[in-house]
TrEMBL record:
Signal peptide: none annotated. Gene3D superfamilies: Nucleoside Triphosphate Pyrophosphohydrolase. It comes from the Archaea. Pfam families: NUDIX (PF00293). This is NUDIX hydrolase. Its cofactor is Mg(2+). It comes from Methanospirillum lacunae.
Length: 141
C-alpha cells in the first residue's frame, strides 16, 4: 500500500487583549473532528499562497480580516485520505466582527489553561501539548 499524500492546512493563533486565544468548535456534521475545538484556518486551494489561503479561511470562518506576523509551529493529522500538516501562524485582527461560519457551532476566547480542558481536534491537541501548554495564563485584572 502506497503512503498517503501530504496535504497542507494553515491555522492562526489570534489573541485578545487579555491573552486569550480564539478557538472554534467544529459542527457535529463535520467529516473530521466533529464537535471538537480547533484554531481558525483550513485547506489551501490549488495555486493559492498559504498566506492568502489563511486570510481567506479566517475571513470565511470568523469574519475577521487578519495580518500574519510569524510562524508558530506545526502539527500532524492522519485522515482516511491524507497526512495533513497544519502550519500554525500568529496574527492579529485588523478589521471585521466575529461571525462564525456554518462549519462551526461555537466560539470561545480561552486562556492556555482553559484550552487544556477542551475536547480538541487531534492535531490541535498535539499542537497544544507541544507549544501552548507552557504559556502561563494571563493575570486577572
Amino acid at each position: 500500500m502506497a503512503p498517503k499524500t501530504f496535504a497542507l492546512s494553515v491555522r492562526i493563533v489570534l489573541f485578545d487583549q487579555q491573552g486569550h486565544i480564539l478557538v472554534l468548535k467544529r459542527s457535529q456534521s463535520s467529516k473530521t473532528n466533529p464537535g471538537k475545538w480547533e484554531l481558525p484556518g483550513g485547506k489551501i486551494n490549488e495555486s493559492e499562497s498559504f498566506d492568502a489561503a489563511l486570510q481567506r479561511e479566517v475571513l470565511e470562518e470568523t469574519g475577521f480580516q487578519v495580518v500574519i506576523h510569524t510562524a508558530a509551529g506545526t502539527a500532524m493529522q492522519e485522515t482516511d485520505e491524507w497526512r495533513v500538516v497544519h502550519l500554525v501562524m500568529i496574527g492579529s485582527m485588523i478589521s471585521g466582527g466575529l461571525a462564525i461560519s456554518s462549519e462551526h457551532e461555537e466560539y470561545r476566547w480561552a486562556s492556555p489553561l482553559e484550552l487544556g480542558g477542551l475536547d480538541k481536534a487531534d492535531w490541535f491537541d498535539e499542537y497544544y501539548k507541544m507549544y501552548l501548554q507552557a504559556i502561563p495564563a494571563a493575570p486577572e485584572k
